[in-house]
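FYI - complex with pyridoxal-5'-phosphate, inputs then prediction.
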Amino acid sequence: MVLSEKELLEKEKKYCSWGDTVHYLEPPKFFDRCEGSYLYDKAGQKYLDLQMWYSAASFGYANPRLGDALKRQIDKLPQLACQYLHPEKVELAEKIAKSVERLFGEKGRVHFNVGGSQAVEDSLKLVRNHTKKNLVFAFMGGYHGRTLGASAITSSYRYRRRYGHFSDKAHFVPYPYCYRCPYGKKYPDCGMYCAKQFEKLFETEYNGVLDTKVNESEYGAFYVESIQGTGGYVIPPKEYFPHIKKTLDRHKILLVDDEIQMGFHRAGKLWGLANFGVKPDIIVFGKALTNGLNPLSGVWAKEYLINPKVFPAGSTHSTFSSNTLGTAVGLEVMKMSEEKNYEKSVFDKGKKFLARLKALQKRHPKIIGDVDGLGLALRMEICHPSDGYTPDRKMADKMFVMGMRGGLKTSKGKYGLVLDVGGYYKNVFTIAPAFDITEAEMDLSIELFDILIRKNS
Ligand SMILES: Cc1ncc(COP(=O)(O)O)c(C=O)c1O
């Protein structure tokens, strides 16, 4: 017997925990099928997806090449305890390590895990193991996951409030969010005031981060997202990271690059931080590595941080880490990345999409306060028409809900629009389309945004 959605919702009410994010939308949404840039509901209605599972399905839903890789592995080696080796694990580690060598000129090794937060936990172990420090810096607006360790370095107190502290909370540093500068300055006249403020922390021992007599910081690492994901796809000015990296190097503080959302070409380059002229000591990745198929995540670290002498057998482990289905798909993703020039196509498409968003902003200057983007990591801030700047969370929410409801009449027929709302004030559409999005789909996106703005303003 096939249950109706109404019947399923009744059961969900009774048997499912509501502790995940499903009930951010009421009533929650069922989908039936997915392909390319689209999700389909049971009635067959198409929903254009502009968030692609928060950038976990960047290579398109039901990508046939990745599906085939998964099917081949299901027929060959569908499962294997992680204490034994299989070829795809080794080959994938090599490809990731070599990609870091190519982009950053650094040698290192890879350790796999299952989810992003778990890989973040592993990176915290690497930091603590080497530096013997528990404390790290992280950004205001940053998001690194919701396990206990990862939520301690994630900016939002909402994710910690009911659980207390297990790991040490990060020292949160303002991110260069120039559209809403935390210091009220204007770029470029600010002269990188924010980076200088970070540098200033180390001027005297009385700022609480450094024993100046021995040049030893109490902080082992700085966790960064090159472009803040959940924080609203905020792109820093190009001078920012080189400036703070100098400060970190001076005080032997590691730079940990969380590429879970921006990695695998979301911001054009394979690794997002490669856009900003600095080299990381540790990289954490997940999401699009398997395009949302079998979960796999991992951490790359410089050789001196992760070689078997300092990080010996048993240092960290999870039953499903380096699972054979995940590594098979991950390997295919890396092969695709080598064969197809995603760096070029994502930058090209990103420019075209951004130009369309800017044209839309011109039509609604009092509602779209800011649009920006790098590669296909694009942002649009919904603001209050009274001044075109005050964040308008209510309107962003209404647009989101209406898009999810579907039935929007466009020149191409009826559609839904799948959006993700992020940002410090939850008024930013973090736009992460599929890498194969066509120009016609970009036009459709703009038409749908336009309908949602007109219907809600
Ligand atoms: C930048 C970043 N780090 C960490 C995570 C956590 O990853 P996961 O949800 O797979 O645990 C996310 C997830 O959205 C993320 O965007």
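The pocket of pyridoxal-5'-phosphate is lined by residues 54, 115-117, 120, 143-145, 225, 229-230, 258, 260-261, 286 (CB under 6 Å). Residues 34 and 250 are 49 Å apart (CA to CA).
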